[in-house]
Design a protein that fits this description.
With 226 residues, the protein is of the alpha/beta class. 40% of the residues lie in helices and 15% in strands. α1 (21-29) packs parallel to α2 (50-56) and α7 (173-184) packs parallel to α8.
Length: 226
């Protein structure tokens, strides 16, 4: 017997990018074009040739001068909202080569099958920093839901993304998305991603503590609002 009919979806890919000229080209070249309507690269205050690489690869290029991963994502959402035909689904992906473009189809499958609104890619063994491990434990304690990872690679239905009203402009963007998805009752799925190492990001102790503090703030903020 034939399998279940998968839903046709308009999918746009968003890649926030900061000083990643060395890795971005290979990532864009490996994307599964049949899965995507467009690729949006948000140059987040880069000082290298990131913009040129994105433009040469045919991506839609946006600029976000304010530093911060969340700020770049918000810039992309604002752009997608202005399109005559907004996407059904948005996929967020890292620019550093740590996410395998071949996994995009795997991310979309639970949404196409009609059972998920947010799909997260997780490693078999999450290798997040201590701050991520703390955040994952705190989410499990307060929300009674154990996520495997807080990685950037994820797919979400665009109406749900807009409804979440995410406000964080920094590295707590993903945490805010996940805890608000729990609070709003979105259907969440996690799929196993390919095992690729995550390049170490140069970060001062002060910046690391600030990032962890923002994540904890978002977790506590929305837990108390439930």
């Amino acid at each position: 017997m034939p399998g279940p009919q998968l839903e046709p979806l308009v999918v746009d890919l968003v890649i926030p990018a900061h000083n990643c000229a060395g890795s971005l080209g290979a990532t864009l070249a490996a994307l599964p074009a049949r899965e995507l309507r467009s690729v949006v690269v948000v140059d987040n205050a880069s000082t290298d040739a990131t913009s040129l690489v994105a433009r040469d690869a045919g991506a839609v290029l946006l600029h976000e001068p304010a530093h911060g991963y969340g700020a770049a994502c918000r810039r992309a959402i604002a752009h997608l909202e202005t399109l005559p035909r907004p996407p059904d689904v948005v996929v967020f992906m890292s620019s550093d080569g740590s996410d395998d473009p071949a996994d995009i189809a795997r991310l979309l499958e639970p949404i196409r099958a009609g059972g998920a609104e947010l799909v997260l890619a997780s490693r078999r063994e999450a290798r997040g920093a201590a701050g991520d491990r703390l955040a994952l434990g705190l989410i499990g304690l307060l929300y009674r839901h154990q996520f495997a990872d807080l990685g950037r690679f994820r797919a979400i239905r665009f109406p749900a993304l807009v409804a979440l009203g995410l406000s964080d402009r920094g590295e707590a963007w993903n945490v805010e998305m996940q805890v608000k998805a729990l609070r709003f009752g979105l259907r969440i799925a996690e799929v196993t991603a390919s095992e690729r190492s995550r390049p170490a990001r140069a970060e001062s102790v002060r910046a690391s503590l600030s990032s962890t503090g923002r994540k904890v703030f978002q977790i506590l903020r929305h837990a108390t609002a439930r």
